[in-house]
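Dig into what follows:

_____
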Amino acid sequence: MKREIIKTGDGSTTIHLPQWNEQYHSKHGAIQEARHVFIEMGLKKILEQEPKEISILEIGFGTGLNALVTWQEMRDKDISIDYTGVEAYPVLTEELEHLNFAEELKEIEAPGIFTRLHAAKWELPQQITGNFSLTKQKKFFEEITTIDTYELIYFDAFGARVQPDLWTESIFRIMFEALKQQGVLVTYAAKGSVRRAMLAVGFKVERLPGPPGKREMLRATKVSI
C-alpha cells in the first residue's frame, strides 16, 4: 500500500495512506490531536488521582507521537511512567526520518528522545529516561492478554471506516480486562457503534469535546461492579 508524508494543519507531519484516504493522525493537526485526546482528556484525568506511577497501554504505537508527548508532559514530574506500545506493523525507518514531531515540539531533548523511542528493542523493557520506561510489543491487538494492569489506554487504531474489526465488542472486552478498576480509555473516535461496543462490555462512556476538526471524542472508564 502506498504511503506518503504530509503536513497537517498545525505544521506537524503524518503518514497518509491514499488507498484508504486515511492518515496516522488528524490532518487538522497531528500534535494538537495527540495532546488533546491523550494528554488533556486521558493522562490528566489519571493525574487527578495523584498517582506515584502510571501504566499506559497504547493501541497503535505507530509513529511514536503519543509516547513523545507523554514524555514531554511527564518529564518534570516525580511520577514513573511504564509505557507499553502495541503495533503489528512498525513504521519504517525512512518514514520516521521525515516526521518532524521532535522539531515542532520546540524541546531541546525531544529529537534524542524520539530517536530512543524508536531505537528501543521490541519485546524488552527499555528505560528511556529516569521516569519513563517503554516496552514495544509487535503483535495484533486481539493477542493482548494482560489483566488488571493499566491505569490508562490510548486507543489510537486506524478508524472504524477502514478497519471496523478493531472497534468491536471483542476488542473492547480485551481493553476492559487489561485496565485496572477506575482505569480510563481515551480515543479520538465518537461513532455511535463504537460507543455501543464500549457500553456492551461494561464501560462507563463519556462524550467529550473533540480535537480540532472533530466535534466529539470518547472517554471510557472501567467502573467497579
The first helix runs from residue 30 to 47.
